[in-house]
Amino acid sequence: MFFNTQSLGVVALAGLATAYRQNQGQCNAASEKVALATAKTFISLGLKDAGYQYVNIDDCWSTKQRDSKGNLIPDPAKWPRGIKPVADEIHAMGLKFGLYGDGGVKTCAGYPGSQGHEQQDANLLASWGVNYWNSKPRYEKMRDLLRATGRDILYSLCNWGYDEVWTWGAQVGHMWRMSQDNWGKWADVVRIANQAAPILKYSILANGALTPAEERTHFAIWCITKSPIILRTDMTKLNSDEVKLITNKGLLAVNQDSLSKPAVLFTPPNTPTKGSSEIYPYWSGPISTGTVVAIVASKGNLNTQLNLKDVPGLKDQEYSWTELLTDLVNVSSH
């Protein structure tokens, strides 16, 4: 159950989020054809209207070698016009364009990384019109060089959660990975949600591996913990229920709330101990309007009951609530 509670009414805010294109055809998906098709589908499904902005391409977009001057080369078989014309076309749709990079010598797939070429790559990305770059001192160097280009480039750090990145990521980049890969299975969702829970003070759909109920829990947990919403999937395979979920105005409003405080765990009285394969069942947190978001993730088909007086921040005040996945409204409660 995912709901908002508020004294004097229900909140409705504008959403803003990002989208990611990955894993369709593996390396073959890192192409102009896929980037433009994704952008068009992105708009037709209503994701742009919901606030999503970025169309990002993952690893394998370049050739395996730099040119004689040390520049990265877009694979001509995948990018016959190069990167800039594609970025310009996506910008003309009112969207932003992002690329994958690596702070080391090689990317995960063995393509050229940026180590030793940070200045050169930062300038090249800016000249192409790139808006997003996914790549502690090594990250700081690229951060400074991206800033120096004068272009506003969203800098995403990916070190799989090593070196306690959550303690320094906010000073180095705009977002950061805090775990190993999510392969689209329920066990991955549970693992990542439970890893995120203790570090929230720092504040995969359509892959066929999750049930509809698991997808709803997955997306809602990411929203209430204020994680960047990055859709790593083939947009053409999203069904109507999945599109409805990822454009849910209430969940996106919570995710993008200006207070930017993630929901955290709380334990009502007489709560059973959580099993190792279960997500923490109770989450709550404030948003800017005074609304407290309380989340209950039930195991299997079990019914879970919660007295809202046990939710931190509600106390004994009068409030109304809206269940965000169904829009079920309760006008007045204590």
UniProtKB/TrEMBL annotation:
PROSITE patterns for this protein: ALPHA_GALACTOSIDASE (PS00512)
This protein's name: Alpha-galactosidase
Organism of provenance: Fusarium agapanthi
Gene3D superfamilies noted in UniProt: Aldolase class I
Keyword Protein transport belongs to the record: no
Main enzyme class: hydrolase
Signal peptide: 1-19
Pfam family, one: Melibiase_2
MF term (GO), any: alpha-galactosidase activity
Task performed by this protein: Hydrolyzes a variety of simple alpha-D-galactoside as well as more complex molecules such as oligosaccharides and polysaccharides.
Catalytic activity: Hydrolysis of terminal, non-reducing alpha-D-galactose residues in alpha-D-galactosides, including galactose oligosaccharides, galactomannans and galactolipids
UniProt GO BP: carbohydrate metabolic process
InterPro entries per the UniProt record, alphabetical: Aldolase_TIM (IPR013785), GH (IPR017853), Glyco_hydro_27 (IPR002241), Glyco_hydro_27/36_CS (IPR000111)
Family: Belongs to the glycosyl hydrolase 27 family.
CDD domains on file: GH27 (cd14792)
Keywords: Disulfide bond, Glycosidase, Hydrolase, Signal
Enzyme Commission code: 3.2.1.22
